[in-house]
Amino acid sequence: MKGIFFSMIVVFLLICLLAFLSIQRSLIFFHSTQVAVESRVEAMVGFYESIIRDSRKSMEIIAGRAVCSAINYVVTTGTPLQSSNETIAELILQGSIEGEAQPLMESSTIIDWKQMIEELGKMQGFETSVEIEDLVVEPEDSFHISISYSILVKLYDNRYVTANLTRKSREKVIFSIENMEDPLYPLNTYGRIVNVIRLSPHWLNYSKEDLTNLKDDLNNSYYHPSLYGASFLDRLEGKFFVQSKYWKEKPIGLESFVNKDKLLSAGLSINTSATNIDYLYFSKSDVAAYLISGMPTNFRLDNETTVYEKTHLEIYNVTAIS
């Protein structure tokens, strides 16, 4: 009898031990699964953040190529863009202008970037979907344009049903137009004059007693901010003044001094009595222009308002000869 009772105790203990081991094994498996899921979620979040960072870097590079393509189109065809902000957006997204593929954008669009990211996601074990939406191109200031866009990222890990991520954010990059060609010059000089947009190193540093800086700005046709002069996007459309669709409270326009001597050397006729401010000169605006003491005889400045509520005579600190 005692032997049977002892055997029952041993069997009961064995059952308890096996149950304990089974529960422990289940707990270890569950914990391991949770750790694995958490690890994948962390990897997923890290991959998402790298996508966002790379989208900004890539957008800036692609925008640069798009702007160059837009300028190249205007200069080579002699035809201004109908809507430069929409055209640049089309170039960024699809690499085309009005549906016509542009050579500079080959394999360099946001769609190409999106496909690369989705393939990279698969290599890391994620089903990846990236969508770029509502892309807006607009002036940021006189020497920069901004590109803002919504990016929707969806990540799935088929091995772990609970591991998925869907996020949407609004991003913005600022792109400098310095060292880009100004399309307004070739459009108004039969393609004979090229001028590169460069902010004057002398901006707001002009003296009546020493005209060296002003003469250097004239010789190099350096650029200055302007309240009314055409912005870069306006210039791509062949416009002379900032249009209402691009208007902002802060200056977004540009102006440079037309070098009349360069126009003459290119075989172009000049208006010696017109102001040298480029957007007023090319638009043949009927504004009074004045000889400036100490400057070349064909140099003229008007007294129209520019920035900081000052006129051109005031901002460049010069004396007009009546």
Key attributes of the depicted protein:
single chain; about 325 residues; alpha+beta; 2 domains; 3-stranded antiparallel beta sheet; 10 strands
Tell me what the structure shows.
Strand 1 and strand 2 form a beta hairpin. The protein contains nine helices and ten strands. The protein is an alpha+beta fold. Helices cover 42% and strands 19% of the residues. It folds into two domains: 38-176, no CATH class; 184-321, no CATH class.
Present the secondary structure layout.
Layout: H1 2-77, H2 84-94, E1 96-97, E2 100-101, H3 110-123, E3 127-141, E4 144-156, E5 164-176, H4 184-188, H5 212-220, E6 223-226, H6 232-236, E7 253-256, H7 260-265, H8 278-282, E8 289-292, E9 300-302, H9 312-315, E10 320-321
Antiparallel strand pairs: 1-2, 3-4, 4-5, 6-7, 8-9, 8-10
Spatial order of the strands forming the largest sheet? 3-4-5
Number of helices: 9
Uncertain parts: 26-33
Shape: elongated
Summary of the model, kept short:
This protein is of the alpha+beta class and 322 residues long. 42% of the residues lie in helices and 19% in strands.
